Amino acid sequence: MAENIVELNIAIGGISKELLDVQKALDAYREKQKRKEAIDEAAITFVSKAELVIEKAEKGDLQLTPDQIRRIKSNLVKILNRVRK
Questions:
Q1: What's the superkingdom here (predicted)?
Q2: Separation of alpha carbons 56 and 75, rounded Å
Q3: Mean pLDDT in the chain?
């Protein structure tokens, strides 16, 4: 029983780190956007991290809720559209 709790805590920690990395990249992008700075590097960082998390979730390596996946994809599409302009 204790082993299951430890494994669960490790899994939750991994998911939390992945989502935190994506959130930090998104926050950095938004901050640069507010200051009208060059956002290409921040956008690329977010896109890379978001794509990695989505891939892991779709393969089953990372357990995310459908809403979490939807929100990451939504932000990903918005940023990609802004960068392409």
A1: Bacteria
A2: 17
A3: 83
Give me the helices (H) in 35-65, please: 40-59
Ramachandran class of 38: left when φ > 0, alpha when ψ lies in -120 to 50, beta otherwise: beta
Amino acid at 85: K
Q: What is the pLDDT of residues 40-70, one digit of tens each?
A: 778 888 888 888 899 988 888 888 889 998 9
Q: What is the largest CA-CA distance in the chain?
A: 54
Residues 6+ apart with CB under 8 A from 81: none
Provide CB contacts within 8 A for 43, sequence distance 6+: 29, 79, 80, 82, 83
Q: Which of 84, 14, 85, 20 is nearest to 46 (CA)?
A: 20
